[in-house]
């Protein structure tokens, strides 16, 4: 759905690992790719789901996880930081992965 909207706006979607394949340092490749972009879209959807554990272990704020917590990949934060530092417009989606329902 998001890719379709980008194409409708005549924007070319690029994704490291899908369209561009780094030969060496992937973070540097993100920087190089970002320098040629007019804007960035960060898809921070759930990649990891923690069902049990302890937050801030061995501190006074330590808490047992009582319900599942979804996390995006840390790459989302790195990519957003690079785009921000370059002054490139940024749109970030956070949350659970979009799932299409069948009727």
Walkthrough of the structure:
This protein is 26% helix and 21% strand. It is of the alpha+beta class. It has a domain of 66 residues. α2 packs across α3.
Radius of gyration: 17 Å
**pLDDT below 50 for ≥5 consecutive residues: which ranges?**
none
How many E-type strands? 6
Strand content: 15-25%
The strand line-up of the biggest sheet is 1-6
Distance between the termini: 18 Å
Q: So what's the overall shape? A: elongated
What string gives the helices and strands in order?
A: HHEEEEEHE
- Helix-residue proportion: 25-40%
What assembly state would you assign to the polypeptide chains in this entry?
single chain
Main sheet summary:
2 strands, parallel
Question: In terms of structural class, how would the helical and strand content be classed?
Answer: alpha+beta
């Amino acid at each position: 759905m998001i890719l379709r909207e980008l194409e409708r706006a005549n924007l070319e979607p690029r994704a490291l690992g899908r369209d561009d394949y780094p030969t060496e340092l992937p973070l540097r490749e993100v920087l190089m790719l970002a320098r040629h972009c007019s804007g960035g879209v960060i898809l921070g959807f759930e990649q990891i789901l923690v069902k049990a554990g302890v937050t801030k272990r061995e501190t006074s704020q330590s808490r047992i996880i009582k319900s599942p917590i979804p996390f995006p990949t840390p790459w989302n934060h790195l990519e957003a930081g690079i785009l921000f530092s370059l002054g490139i417009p940024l749109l970030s989606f956070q949350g659970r992965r979009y799932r299409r329902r069948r009727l």
